[in-house]
Design brief:
The chain has about 100 residues and is mainly alpha-helical. The protein folds into 2 domains: about 70 residues, no CATH class; about 30 residues. Helix content is about 70%, strand content about 0%. The protein is elongated, with a radius of gyration of 18 Å.
Length: about 100
Amino acid sequence: MTDDELDILLKDKTDFNKRLRLIACLYGCEDERSVLALKHLAKHDFVYVVRRSAWQALQAKGILIPEPVERPRYVILLERFLERAKRICQKVGDFCVGWSI
């Protein structure tokens, strides 16, 4: 599997079953690229089952990372939205510094 194919599968959010099959493939690989991909899935995927499966694969390989926390999807999306809103407000505030009414 090439790096481009791996990146496409990691970012594919259309079907979590694809990412579960990817985890099964990466579990058998011993290279650093597979470990990085599993860490990315364990930390950043929206689906708890995918995060948990990636974490289990890493545990089986002897790589210890914190266990993923089960959170509803809306909480993850809300956190990302609030972070973006915070950055936008900071940029607008920086832009308006020095203006007087």
